[in-house]
Design a protein that fits this description.
It holds the Pfam family SBP_bac_11. Belongs to the bacterial solute-binding protein ModA family. Keywords: Metal-binding, Signal. The N terminus is likely disordered. The protein is built from ten helices and ten strands. Helix 2 links the parallel strand 1 and strand 2. The longest helix is centred in the N-terminal third of the chain and has 15 residues. Helix 1 crosses helix 3 and helix 2 packs antiparallel against helix 10. It folds into two domains: 133 residues, 3-Layer(aba) Sandwich (D-Maltodextrin-Binding Protein, domain 2); 96 residues, Periplasmic binding protein-like II (D-Maltodextrin-Binding Protein, domain 2, 3-Layer(aba) Sandwich). It is α/β, with parallel strands linked by helices and 241 residues long. The strands form two sheets. A five-stranded mixed β-sheet has the order 2-1-3-10-4.
């Protein structure tokens, strides 16, 4: 009963994040890609007059939302979560490649990620690996790099990438693992960031998945076509995708 109530509350929170206007279609995305998708949907509306409503959260939340509401036409996130979601997808379109970075608060100056073992780095945030792909990537990276043993007591599990980012900005943590896209978006508010070695965590394929019941919707096809235009690609590239 408690689990069902929690799921319903999560869905309500997601719905409250959507714009107040009714969109031609609704998309859902991992919270770490909110900035580029807001830029793209705004440009899409300006170019076409069509609107797109959007909800954002960790992958667990948006999968639950898609399953419960039946109103989400396109989901954008990591393919591995889609593969085990239990949702029925009609097709997938590549959006970009996700990249893990370590970001740190203002007042610190790191030259390599290995410096997080130092005494002055007391708290390191990362997203929940069961809900956010970058939590899983961070866990893999720490284990495969040999840093886990000397940082385990410093680690703080948070819900989403943006939550980790907000904790870095507010200096509630010294450093945190987030995606490159979010790091670019908050670059002026933090001390800096470094890319994690991509050979030390599983590749992250960011795709747009079309839910089967919307496979013949012309508005869906129109938005996916726009997502593949040079203008949209420029936005994605600007955010590291």
């Amino acid at each position: 009963m408690i689990n069902h109530l929690f799921t319903a509350l999560c869905s309500l929170v997601l719905l409250c994040q959507a714009p107040l206007f009714a969109g031609d279609i609704t998309i859902a995305s991992g919270a770490g890609y909110k900035r580029p998708l807001q830029d793209i949907t705004t440009l899409y509306r300006e170019k076409t007059g069509n609107t797109v409503s959007a909800v954002f959260g960790n992958m667990h939340q948006i999968i639950s939302q898609a399953s419960l509401s039946g109103s989400i036409a396109i989901m954008i996130g990591d393919q591995k979560f889609f593969d085990r979601s239990g949702l029925d997808f009609a097709s997938f379109q590549p959006v970009g490649k996700g990249r893990l970075v370590l970001a740190w608060r203002k007042g610190l100056n790191l030259e390599r990620i290995g410096q997080i073992t130092a005494e002055d780095i007391e708290r390191i945030g990362f997203p929940d690996s069961s809900k956010a792909i970058y939590g899983s990537a961070a866990t893999q990276y720490l284990a495969n790099s040999g840093l886990m043993e000397n940082t385990a007591e410093k680690l703080l599990k948070l819900s989403t990438v943006p939550q980790v980012s907000s904790y870095i900005i507010s200096k509630e943590i010294d450093a945190g693992f987030i995606n490159l896209t979010d790091a670019i978006g908050i670059a002026e508010a933090i001390g800096g960031y470094l890319p994690a070695d991509e050979s030390l965590y599983s590749s992250i394929a960011i795709n747009a998945g079309v839910l089967k019941e919307f496979s013949n919707n012309p508005n869906v096809r129109d938005f996916l076509d726009f997502l593949d235009t040079a203008e949209a690609r420029t936005i994605l590239k600007t955010y590291g995708l």
